[in-house]
Amino acid sequence: MDDPRIEIHSRKTGFKGFFALAIFRLRHRRHDGGWTREIEREVFLREPVVAVLPYDPVRNTILLLEQFRLPAHLIGQDAWQQEIIAGIVEEGENLEDVAVRECQEEAGFKPLALEKIMTYMPSQGACTEATTIFLAHMDDAGLGGVHGLEDEDEDILARVLPFDEAWAMLEEGRIQNSPAIIALQWLKLNRQDVTKRWNT
Length: 200
Description:
- With 200 residues, the chain is α+β, with helices and mostly antiparallel strands.
- It is 24% helix and 38% strand.
- The protein has helices spanning 70-74, 95-107, 163-171, 178-198; strands at 6-16, 20-28, 39-45, 49-56, 61-68, 80-83, 85-88, 113-120, 131-137, 145-147, 156-162.
- Strands 4, 5, 6, 7, 8, 9, 10 and 11 form an eight-stranded mixed beta sheet that branches.
- The protein is elongated.
- Its EC number is 3.6.1.13.
- InterPro entries: NDP_pyrophosphatase, NUDIX_hydrolase-like_dom_sf, NUDIX_hydrolase_dom.
């Protein structure tokens, strides 16, 4: 985090619960070489996130989750969002282990292989969260049903769908969250190569 173009003068906690908010006072270099005045920025602090799109290259199917999301409801979207598998990376965990754990907890399977798609920031102006998306090689036989951790009040419906049906859902605007949109778009562009690699 050392960067001579940035001077952080203070940091204080604005809120700390399941999520945390920090308030920074800082200045940074301008494009003309000068410095900004001291400015204040609120930053939503969040651990890294892993998201996983399961894909069966033999049957050309993917697995989507449906679960309740209060923020979606609050802005007038469907409260039961169509999503891919996702979970928070705890301290000391590596991304691949989290991907495997979340596949087991949220969809009841262990991936045959994982392929990293990308890491991106969903809201770089407000939040420290970085999301890493993986494609998971799955055998879809017998998959589906309701999953999740009871002690976290998770109620997650896992459904196996033909890729073309999932793509139609995206085009119709029924998939509204960035990890699922990015993962499906990536698979649309790379499906032929992935199928070739995983079926040899």
